[in-house]
Amino acid sequence: MLLRIASLFLLAFWSLQCNAQAQSLPKNLILMIPDGFGPASLTMARDFQQATTGKMQLALDEFLVGNARTYASNSRVTDSAAGATAYSCGIKTYNGAIAVAPDGTPCATLFEAAKKRGLKTGVVVTTRITHATPAAFSSHVPRRANEDDIATQQIENSGMDLIFGGGGKYFIPKEAGGARADGRNLLLEAKRKGYALAGNLAEFHQLSKLPAIAVFAPDHMAYEVDRDPTKEPSLAEMTEKALQLLQKNNPKGFVLMVEGSRIDHAGHANDPAGHVHDILAYDAAVRKALEFARRDGQTLVVSVADHETGGMTLGRDGVYQWKPEALAKVKNSVDTLAALAKKPGADVVALLKEKTGITDLTEEEITTLKSEIAAAAPRFAFTLIHIVSKRSIIGWTTDGHSAVDVTVHAYGPGTYLFRGNHENAAVGQALAKAMRFDLKALTKTMFK
Amino acid sequence: MLLRIASLFLLAFWSLQCNAQAQSLPKNLILMIPDGFGPASLTMARDFQQATTGKMQLALDEFLVGNARTYASNSRVTDSAAGATAYSCGIKTYNGAIAVAPDGTPCATLFEAAKKRGLKTGVVVTTRITHATPAAFSSHVPRRANEDDIATQQIENSGMDLIFGGGGKYFIPKEAGGARADGRNLLLEAKRKGYALAGNLAEFHQLSKLPAIAVFAPDHMAYEVDRDPTKEPSLAEMTEKALQLLQKNNPKGFVLMVEGSRIDHAGHANDPAGHVHDILAYDAAVRKALEFARRDGQTLVVSVADHETGGMTLGRDGVYQWKPEALAKVKNSVDTLAALAKKPGADVVALLKEKTGITDLTEEEITTLKSEIAAAAPRFAFTLIHIVSKRSIIGWTTDGHSAVDVTVHAYGPGTYLFRGNHENAAVGQALAKAMRFDLKALTKTMFK
Question: What CATH code is assigned to B314-395?
Fold first, then answer.
């Protein structure tokens, strides 16, 4: 009898403990979004890294747990606004919607729930801060193009403790070189509210407390492949700095959203070098987040893209190969290459040799390049970069997005919530659940 | 003191039990290979199912656990031979290699290890049985084109208990309408060895014991979209029958390989209807395997593709949408459509209206179709099917394979071995580990 009671006790204890081990939850959340990063982007970056450094493993490879369906409420192919709202609010909405439901009413975000409970919040991006992804965590507007409104809400309402990125122009009035029509200078207003401001790398390094804003460009920051490290920090440097500041004197925890923003822009431009270098810069930021989470033990790191961009494929035209070694010779983004090629007097053949390592241009390619430069053809950048893609045996099918499921990566307490195949909105709900946020209830309280 | 000892005991007990729970291993293995099934194929089939039936979940969605890297030892883009050898032997090898190492020496397979231990083995495919994927589990040849040799080894050496599929031609001499040069009739030899033979659906249904061979066509079985259910069974029917026969009077267990073979062929042909219907037929077979494993409790089911085919994307040309509703109107594979269109007197415009629901052909499309038919242009089938893909907003970049990581799905005891991102060879090694097979040692014993 005693034995039987003891064994029952043991069984109960064991099942409780196994459950507890599997289901502990985090204090901090680092949500990382590689914008426009499809399944082929993961293979591409790993193969490129292997070809250039010999290393077989990305940080992203260490914690892959599933994938996510990305469609929007009004299309099987999402945009970044609906894609980000799925994660910030845990709902499906229409393309263009920034943290509003299909009926246009605001939905409470992870950030709003975090502030309600006294946690700190922050965004680290390389686009304009008012771009769709960060906007969906820090504002509510019916159309993503309303960037004046987004900027106003980000400074007036969101209460974000940390904002690092490009794109100050919607914070500054037209008269002062910005893009705002209403004459307000939101950066000065933020300063008056107590934000520390940084506008260059030296000021960024000096930031030592929150709240803080660092803005490195009037528009997007540079593509990683073009970046001047004396002028702009890397995404990994911004992520590391953000984690230092958020951790400091902060007993309640934080929610940080880090976006590898321009992976997407390179996809839109069908630019394989821009794409792969921004992915590797993102992967380095992921590594910083993982290192933090491993030290800290109370932090959940989730990486999940909003959608794929470009319809990129490794291999094309019946060839059973692709060539990261050829891609490694490309020294600039297509934006920079096209601008250089269009300069008066530029020699496009010599330029491509110097900047992309291509020495086998066909007569037909040279003729097309030259005639498109002469005609100022809008397609010129695509013509040029498709010549580069062909040498690396990379295909593209669109300058927009595609519907393929994206990979989900999770590490730390709460990881079990992200295993398997999920709707993107369910990933958002799992993020809220991991942090014990009730976004539905909060939406009612705040907006109904 | 007593309390401390008791708590130490509890801790040890708990950690042992949690481990044991996570690490129990299977008696049976069902390895399912959707040939040429990329990440976009999963999204495609789910969206198509949702659009046509309202159901949001594929069988494959229920047990996704990670993804696999597919490159071969001599290329970043694998073929099906090297891809299948990664799973059958747990090694990376060169494109074209059927269960041989890069140096050409044979590598012991899961099937050889299974037979050694008295387990039953079988293959269920819809290609020729001598095609690369089933061949890599049941023969060793340096080049996949050696299908005479493959057939000989399959009947003479492999000891397979169950063979269901298409493609009897390499088992039958030229004189008898087959493809063998050596005059042997391997099917008759198999019969003499004790195999039950089925050559049509009625005989297939009558099969009641092992060993058994069912061959439904001289070459590949039909694409699912073209299949006549009175002539050929579905992949799900073959899988269900195989599991019944393998389970019967079998205390030691089995290893069954089921291939969704022609998903790949449709990818090569850039045929979206062929692709999606073969995926859904595969998913139905996966559901049969999962149902068996759930009842049985001792069976590991793993689904993993060998590679992606076609560079397929859902969305193209800048459109943020794709249309399974349009694809659902397509009633035949491109092979059938092109054959019908090329018949003397056929009206390609009327044919496309009837068989694909396309009523908005442009003048340019009609001119191209008609002139290619008249000229017997080899590209005609691609021209025709790209017109179909365009209506569904589906892109393709190749008639070959691409390098993207493929999804891995696992259910049952041993699932923990497959979580995360793995090399395809490591997936093969994990399959062996789950079954307690030592393929390295067996390779030495058998071949060195």
Answer: 1.10.60.40
